[in-house]
Amino acid sequence: MKKSLLLVALMAAAALTACGKKDEPPAVVAPAPVVVTPPAAPAAAPAPAPDAQSALDAANAATEAAKKNAETPPAKP
Known about the structure:
This protein starts with a helix and ends in a 6-residue tail after the last helix. The chain has 2 helices and no strands. The chain has helices spanning 2-18, 52-71. The chain is mainly α.
């Protein structure tokens, strides 16, 4: 009985080992060649729109007014 149990265990171990995946080292892939292109000439910065400053001033004024209204407690009726 013990011999047959040992034989079954050895056969199971051999079967599991035979079904295992082979360990192969991963294939080495050569890196792609690097292509270097010269940088393009810098583009001229676009001129700001003439009303951009006035729009910025209006936005800042609105922000300040909103902050002031938020800090002021509401008037009692």
